[in-house]
Structures are given as C-alpha cells and as structure tokens.
What we know:
This protein is of the alpha+beta class. The chain contains 7 helices and 4 strands, in the order E-H-E-H-E-E-H-H-H-H-H. It has helices spanning 10-21, 40-43, 63-74, 84-113, 121-141, 151-167, 176-188; strands at residues 2-5, 27-30, 51-53, 59-60. It has a 4-stranded mixed sheet. Helix 1 links the parallel strand 1 and strand 2. The protein is globular, with a radius of gyration of 17 Å.
Amino acid sequence: MLLRHSPTSPFARKARVAAAILDIPLELEAADTLDPNDSLRQQNPLGKIPALLTGDGEVLFDSSVILAYLDHLAGDGRILPTEPAARITVLRREALVDGMMDAGILILYEARFRPQEKHEPRWLEHQAGKRLRAIDALETEVEPYSGTPNVGDIALACALGWFDFRFAGDWRADHPKLVAWFDAFSAAHPQFADSAPVA
C-alpha cells in the first residue's frame, strides 16, 4: 500500500504511526498539495493528505478513515474498539484532536499564505481559541497512558508532537498531565520517533 503524505503533516503521521503499531507495511510517497500537476488531485479530489492507495484501485482519505481501514486489516478492535460505547468514546477523542490540529493548521496557513499586513486578527484568535480550549479539555480528561493505543491516542500523540514542531511546545507549560501522557506514549512506542516531522 502507498501513502501519499508530507513529512510534516500530523494527519499523515497518524497513518504512519498506526501502521507501525499494527505492523502493516506502508510505502511512502511525498505529495505536494499545492502543485496542480501532482497526481494527488486525481487520487483525492480534495487534494489533501494523507491519501492511502490500497493496491486494489481504491484510494482512502482522510486520516480517520485510513486508521479505521488499517484496524480492519489488522483484525478489527486493535486500535478502534468494537464495543459501541468504547468506540464512540475513542472516536470522540479523535474528532476533538483532529479539530484541534485543523485549527493549528489554519493558523499556520494564515501566516504562510497571507502577508503580515493582511492577517485577520479575529480569524487567528478564533482558531487559537479552538486550539487552546481543546488542549485544556484534554488536560482535564486525559488518564495516565495505559500502553494500549487507540485511534484517539495516536491522534493526540501526533498533535502534541506537531505542536512541539510548529508552535515551539507552547502547550507544555500549563498542561502537565498531557506532558506526562505524551512522554509515556513516546516511551511505549519507540517507532513513534521514526515519523517525527522534519522541516
């Protein structure tokens, strides 16, 4: 299977980490989401990463769908619980974290694609508020890491790692439970370091 990705994308990292935890080999191919000639736009009409080419002609996106598919390949229930209540809890965590990452990416894009004098402070404050509220909520609800990962855990680890990379670890000072959780996840899964974002 081939994963179209970027080495800095936290969403692509979710797929890479899940595949590593599940011992599912993935071939990696970088994609340029801004290049109209990149085949990504034919593979995923949204032109977004990650996109997983399964080998049988199917292309899967976004990251939550890819993780569900990888769990299915691994035998169901490995990283996505099959019991309904547990499944909903884990999917809720994944959705919260994905939204938090979306907000961070929009903040980054405002700086990347618009000149400083055209930045919209209200828009940036709106996105920053989403990110901070999500981090604060996760700080209150996170439990010590059990060592058995699920899709919510994988998403959270990738988000916190990306916030270290793009936001200089600004979440750490006021969120000691998340710091401890992140350190425990990283120690329990050495392969997590293999997918660390690079500039």
